[in-house]
């Protein structure tokens, strides 16, 4: 080395230093990746994250993650300060009228919202200690994001509070812009003032969808215009809890094929109280019911065990759909949204099934907390409402659910009609997408991603109303008990399926089975004991349909009988079978 000339020595030394820095960075990344749950399923990452050669090793400092806008000082006694509920004083008649109008317009208390600061603080960071200790590495670094908020006639105060809460919490270095996409609001105030108002906020822009087409196409408009690497969608009545953005972006860096949602905290629709995270709360995953309704369910024990600490993601079968982050390039790769879906509804399940079936993952990141005002019903007008929403659901069932779509059609007469009459539009582009991405089938999704699901019979042996041929009356579920009544169709309470496992199930969305108890004459409805694929039913819920049309219970050996106006369980008679003879009609 001594014999080399000075410039060569400097060159070699530089090379060694560069080598060590690169090695160090790769090591950090590898260690972090190893800590995480391995991804199951097909992973074809379309996003290649090239490590930034200029990034410094180590973790981001507080200064580097400084929010875009500093929150003005708060008066802790101000209405709703620190996320506290709005307390109303004695109201004048006029104020009462204002409250009522606010509810009619928004289905939440606009009166309260209008009196709470647009900049309100949410107080102390109450997340789990693991979240507070989480570090974010400079290499390969967190990506930038565009925040996209679609709205239709949103109240000024909730919309602007959503915008400010992003500006007050998202690190300036990571926040490219906020795009407000107006889905053809008719509210004059919004139309006249919003553009001008947000101009002072420099990184906020308003885009407009001329005709009301709904949140799905509005989000697509925003996604197309977005300049950030990551798209972050929010509803127009949200508030972000401190530190919400970094955990979402950090997870995307680790797993670029993930679609990540924050933990959604509720903001009270009457008093706008922000329900802060509590460290020891129950964890939930997003699920779906066979009527294609979204829901929450506490996560199964085995899944809990896979998470070593609170910073780990929760792999979720579905997501609520309003609040999430995804790489823009992955969003495009995986087929954005079905742009033929209209207005509202269904796009969240469509995206959940698609992402899982086509090799990605849907996750909830508990360290990221965003509040949302959940309301009981929608304040928006829906021209041809129910039809449009059901049509969206039929589109997703047709594309992603294979033979399982029939379960949905059995439960939803309108959907069955839309399917039969082919009123759901053309889905060939979506079928092509499924083909192109070589996505897995729905049965794989159920078995691997949501094995806890209540599994209905794909083709029940018999279904319909259960009629006692002797008394010409039909069985009906009433709460936990069983009634009999004339055979006039009364919807779900009178629709039964006789499964291949010999259960008499109420419509599969309700998950109740006809149940016998030893020593009791009364039959009841209880949760079906059979869950998951390939398991057998419990004898108290097994009913053998005999050749003489009796329904004989396996546990008690007794038969379903109509006696004195009730449905009971009595000893099986050989003949006559008058009160023990049943048929599905
Ligand atoms: C839930 C989701 C929402 C979406 C929807 C099903 C959460 C928190 N929210 O909505 O993101 O997945 O279920 O489609 O997960 N909007 C329009 N045009 C319309 C109707 C609504 O722009 O025609 C906007 C609306 O202003 C709001 C967003 O879309 O910002 C969601 O609508 P919502 O808040 O009325 O319904 P929500 O929260 O039940
Ligand atoms: Mn909402």
TrEMBL record:
Keyword entries, A-Z: Disulfide bond, Glycosyltransferase, Golgi apparatus, Lectin, Manganese, Membrane, Metal-binding, Signal-anchor, Transferase, Transmembrane, Transmembrane helix
Domain of life: Eukaryota
EC number(s) recorded for this UniProt protein: 2.4.1.-
Domain Ricin B lectin span(s) in chain numbering: 459-585
Pathway given in the UniProt record: Protein modification; protein glycosylation
Cofactors that this protein relies on: Mn(2+)
Protein's GO biological process: protein O-linked glycosylation via N-acetyl-galactosamine
Alphabetized Pfam families for the sequence: Glycos_transf_2, Ricin_B_lectin
Chief location of this protein within or outside the cell: Golgi
Transmembrane as UniProt keyword: yes
Keyword Glycosyltransferase part of the UniProt annotation: yes
Coiled coil feature spans: none
Cellular component terms (Gene Ontology): Golgi membrane
Enzyme class: transferase
Topology of this chain in the membrane: Single-pass type II membrane protein
Record-stated family: Belongs to the glycosyltransferase 2 family. GalNAc-T subfamily.
UniProt name for this protein: Polypeptide N-acetylgalactosaminyltransferase
Source organism (scientific name): Cottoperca gobio (Frogmouth)
């Amino acid at each position: 080395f001594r014999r080399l000339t000075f410039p060569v020595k400097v060159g070699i030394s530089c090379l060694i230093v560069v080598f060590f820095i690169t090695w160090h960075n790769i090591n950090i990344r590898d260690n972090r990746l190893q800590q995480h749950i391995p991804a199951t399923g097909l992973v074809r990452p379309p996003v290649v994250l090239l490590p930034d050669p200029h990034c410094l090793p180590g973790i981001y400092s507080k200064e580097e993650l400084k929010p875009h806008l500093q929150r003005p000082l708060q008066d802790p006694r101000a209405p709703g300060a620190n996320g506290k509920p709005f307390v109303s004083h004695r109201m004048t008649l006029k104020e009462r009228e204002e409250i009522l109008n606010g509810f009619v317009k928004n289905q939440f208390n606009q009166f309260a919202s209008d009196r709470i600061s647009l900049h309100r603080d949410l107080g102390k960071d109450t997340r789990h200690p693991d979240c507070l200790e989480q570090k974010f590495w400079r290499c390969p670094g967190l990506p930038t994001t565009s925040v996209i908020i679609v709205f239709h006639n949103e109240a000024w105060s909730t919309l602007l509070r959503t915008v400010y809460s992003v500006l007050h919490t998202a690190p300036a270095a990571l926040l490219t812009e906020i795009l407000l996409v107006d889905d053809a609001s008719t509210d004059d105030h919004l139309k006249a003032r919003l553009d001008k108002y947000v101009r002072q906020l420099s990184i906020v822009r308003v885009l407009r969808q001329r005709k009301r087409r709904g949140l799905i196409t509005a989000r697509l408009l925003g996604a197309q215009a977005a300049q950030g690497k990551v798209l972050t969608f929010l509803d127009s009545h949200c508030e972000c809890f401190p530190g919400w953005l970094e955990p979402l972006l950090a997870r995307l860096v680790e797993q670029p094929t993930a679609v990540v949602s924050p933990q959604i905290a509720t903001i009270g629709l009457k008093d706008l109280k922000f329900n802060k995270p509590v460290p020891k709360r129950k964890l939930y995953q997003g699920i779906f019911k066979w009527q294609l309704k979204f829901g929450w369910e506490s996560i199964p024990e085995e899944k809990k065990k896979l998470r070593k600490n609170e910073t780990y993601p929760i792999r979720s079968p579905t997501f609520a759909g309003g609040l999430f982050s995804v790489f823009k390039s992955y969003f495009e790769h995986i087929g954005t949204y079905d742009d033929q879906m209209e207005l509202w509804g269904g796009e969240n399940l469509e995206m959940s099934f698609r992402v899982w079936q086509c090799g990605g993952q849907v996750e909830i990141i508990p360290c990221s907390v965003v509040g949302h005002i959940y309301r009981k019903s929608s304040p928006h007008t829906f021209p041809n409402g129910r039809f449009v929403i059901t049509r969206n659901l039929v589109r997703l069932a047709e594309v992603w659910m294979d033979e399982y779509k029939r379960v949905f059609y059995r439960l939803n007469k309108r959907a069955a009609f839309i399917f039969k009459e082919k009123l759901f539009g053309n889905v060939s582009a979506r079928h092509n997408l499924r083909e192109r991405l070589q996505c897995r089938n729905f049965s794989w999704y159920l078995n691997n991603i949501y094995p806890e699901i209540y599994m209905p019979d794909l083709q029940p042996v018999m279904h319909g109303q259960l009629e006692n041929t002797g008394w010409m009356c039909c069985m009906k579920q009433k709460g936990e008990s069983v009634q009999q009544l004339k055979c006039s169709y009364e919807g779900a309470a009178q629709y039964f399926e006789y499964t291949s496992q010999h259960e008499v199930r109420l419509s599969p969305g309700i998950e109740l089975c006809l149940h016998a108890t030893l020593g009791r004459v009364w039959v009841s409805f209880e949760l079906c004991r059979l869950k998951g694929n390939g398991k057998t039913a419990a004898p108290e819920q097994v009913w053998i349909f005999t050749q003489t049309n009796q329904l004989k219970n396996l546990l008690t050996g007794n038969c379903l009988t109509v006696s004195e106006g009730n449905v009971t369980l009595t000893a099986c008679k050989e003949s006559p079978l008058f009160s023990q003879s049943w048929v599905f009609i």
